């Protein structure tokens, strides 16, 4: 079994990074939506610190995931997928990447421009990336807040599309991001008339 992605499915490294990012986003979202209603005190400070540390972890994982994607390549679209769906899926993926960069960075800018300290899980301090500024603090806060809702909408659309393909199209759009050996359907070939050797007989083959 190869660790890299193949023509018909995502490899284990991509799967691990994908689901780790999904769990992180879910945790960050739950904390972010509940922490503002907490009463001021040590517990609220700790929850805010945890939110920031998880956000920085997300930023690191997204960088790692993007680098791995560029190195390991991506599977071809599943056969029969209309071109407009491929295009929308590609745009959605890159929009998700942009937002997963924008949210942690805007949070870091907001933290810096508001004059708050920033520690990573209490292990070490991180530098400010912006000077104190009320205007910048307000702008970065708005980007962080509205960007979150946009990210949530895209994540739900992305998940909904995957389940639609799985339940109604009966293809491997969803299952090839899941662990385990599954017999994948043919993928779109690189040329109009592929030879039999271009489509792997086993989906997990190198």
UniProtKB/TrEMBL annotation:
Ranges of compositional bias, category Low complexity: 185-200
Membrane topology note: Multi-pass membrane protein
A GO BP annotation: respiratory electron transport chain
Ranges where the Cytochrome b561 bacterial/Ni-hydrogenase domain occurs: 9-180
Presence of keyword Electron transport: yes
Family, per entry: Belongs to the cytochrome b561 family.
Protein name: Prokaryotic cytochrome b561 family protein
């Amino acid at each position: 079994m190869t660790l890299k992605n193949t023509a018909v499915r995502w490899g284990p490294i991509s799967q691990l990074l994908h689901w780790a990012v999904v769990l992180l986003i879910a945790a960050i979202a739950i904390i972010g939506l509940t922490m503002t209603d907490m009463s001021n005190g040590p517990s609220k400070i700790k929850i805010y610190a945890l939110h920031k540390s998880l956000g920085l972890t997300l930023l690191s994982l997204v960088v790692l995931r993007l680098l791995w994607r560029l190195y390991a390549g991506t599977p071809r679209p599943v056969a029969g997928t209309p071109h407009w769906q491929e295009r929308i899926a590609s745009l959605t993926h890159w929009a998700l990447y942009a937002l997963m960069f924008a949210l942690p960075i805007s949070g870091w800018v907001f933290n810096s421009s508001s004059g708050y300290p920033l520690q990573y899980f209490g292990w070490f301090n991180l530098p400010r990336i912006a000077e104190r500024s009320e205007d910048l603090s307000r702008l970065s806060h708005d980007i962080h807040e509205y960007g979150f809702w946009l990210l949530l909408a895209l994540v739900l659309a992305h998940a909904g599309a995957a389940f639609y393909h799985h339940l109604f199209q009966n293809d491997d759009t969803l299952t090839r991001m899941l662990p385990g050996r599954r017999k994948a359907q043919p993928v779109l070939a690189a040329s109009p008339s592929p030879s039999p050797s271009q489509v792997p007989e086993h989906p997990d083959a190198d």
